[in-house]
Amino acid sequence: MSRYLVTGASGFLGGFLLNFVTSTKGEVFSVGRNSSNQIVADLAREIPVISQNIDVVVHAAGKAHTVPSTEAEKRDFFDVNLNGTKNLCTALEKLEIKPLSFIFISTVAVYGLDTGKNIPERHVLAGKTPYALSKIEAEKFLETWCATNHIKLSILRLPLIAGQRPPGNLGAMVKGIQSGKYFNISGGTAKKSIVMAADVAKWIPVIAQHPGIYNLTDGYHPSFSELANVIAKQLNKSTPKNIPGWIAKCIALVGNLLGNKAPINTDKLQKITATLTFDDTLARKTFGWAPSKVLDGFIID
Length: 301
What we know:
Layout: E1 3-7, H1 12-23, E2 27-32, E3 39-40, E4 56-59, H2 71-93, E5 101-107, E6 116-119, H3 130-148, E7 152-158, E8 160-162, H4 168-179, E9 184-185, E10 194-196, H5 197-202, H6 204-207, E11 212-215, H7 224-234, E12 242-243, H8 245-258, H9 266-272, E13 276-278, H10 281-287, H11 294-297
Parallel strand pairs: 1-2, 1-4, 2-3, 4-5, 5-7, 6-13, 7-11, 8-10, 9-12
Helix pairs in contact: 2-3, 8-9
């Protein structure tokens, strides 16, 4: 029976990880600020006390889904995503027996792209946002630290993550359809990579045996309109209406004048009307990654 240390267990993906390990009767220890964790610690600011030997570390704790508006908010990303990683590793160094494997939950944001098709792991890391930069630095730190300590490192660069009550842009999409305020733009034909949280969780034991850097997707890359139709059907809502591209551009120009609080501006419009997909061939060839199709398994509640 393997022993897992999971950070971010109270978060969206972390919850799936925790439930999966528990269901397979693996022994799991969670680290986080919430009192429900076995090891209570704010990784961004303190080094946790870990007294149990661990086989696999799954580091899912992180800051995302917010747009910083101040320097302090920008620093928060590095405090959580980079310093939190360093504090965790400092705690692991004190163990008499080091973990066998370390799995780091990263993001496709490290590539810094708004458009592109089948982007592979070897693509240059050009992310410029505090979120992307903090993850890039955390990846680099872990590559050195794990090599020094002879620990297998697997870095998972994830796109949109689907599952019950999803966060971020996908969660906003669900709320918009529920309230009747969501519209497809230019037919909603743009495709985005996406993966089921449950699939990531159940493949963790396999991934732990195959160090490397992997994009994980469902391999299908649904369009916005396909996702919207599935969500609307589950919510018993009508199919979202469409806004022609030229009208959306006019609305976006007005949004530029209103600032970041505007629901849409030219930058946001470009992102939601551009296809951006990632190639997970390496994971499929290396350890047989065979996820479910999100459109078939996405249950929002």
